[in-house]
Amino acid sequence: MIRTLLIEAALFLTPFVIYGAILMATRGSLVPANWSARAVLVCALAAVALMALGLFVFEADKGAPPGSRYVPAQMKDGVFVPGRYE
């Protein structure tokens, strides 16, 4: 669980860090006055898109492993057959 939260936090912060690096390279400062509202909005939208993509990519394959289908307990011909994995 903590790994998923850390991955999502890193994906969210990535656009802001990249924009900050661009500001440092071009203007030499991270003064809040240099952060335009449009740039912050674009970073926020990119962050949400990265988080959604990350959730899809990292969590999509967490199904049951092959060969581990559960068959519930049942009665067959008057005999109780306990539940099992196949």
List the SSEs and their pairings.
Layout: H1 2-27, H2 37-59, E1 70-71, E2 74-76, E3 79-81, E4 84-85
Antiparallel strand pairs: 1-4, 2-3
Structure description:
The protein has 86 residues and is mainly alpha-helical. The protein has one domain. Helices cover 57% and strands 12% of the residues. It is built from two helices and four strands, in the order ααββββ. The protein has helices at residues 2-27, 37-59; strands at residues 70-71, 74-76, 79-81, 84-85. The strands form two sheets. It has a two-stranded antiparallel ribbon with strand order 1-4. A two-stranded antiparallel ribbon has the order 2-3. β2 and β3 form a beta hairpin. The mean pLDDT is 86.
Key structural traits:
86 residues; mainly alpha; two-stranded antiparallel sheet; 2 helices; 12% strand; rod-shaped; DUF6111
Domain count? 1
What does the largest sheet look like? 2 strands, antiparallel
| Counted beta strands | 4
Shape: rod-shaped
Bin the strand percentage: 5-15%
- Give me the side-by-side strand order of the main sheet: 1-4
- In DSSP terms (H or I, runs of 4 or more residues), the helix count works out at 2
Quote the average pLDDT.
86
Protein name: NADH-quinone oxidoreductase subunit M
Keywords: Membrane, Transmembrane, Transmembrane helix
Transmembrane segments: 6-25, 37-58
InterPro entries: DUF6111
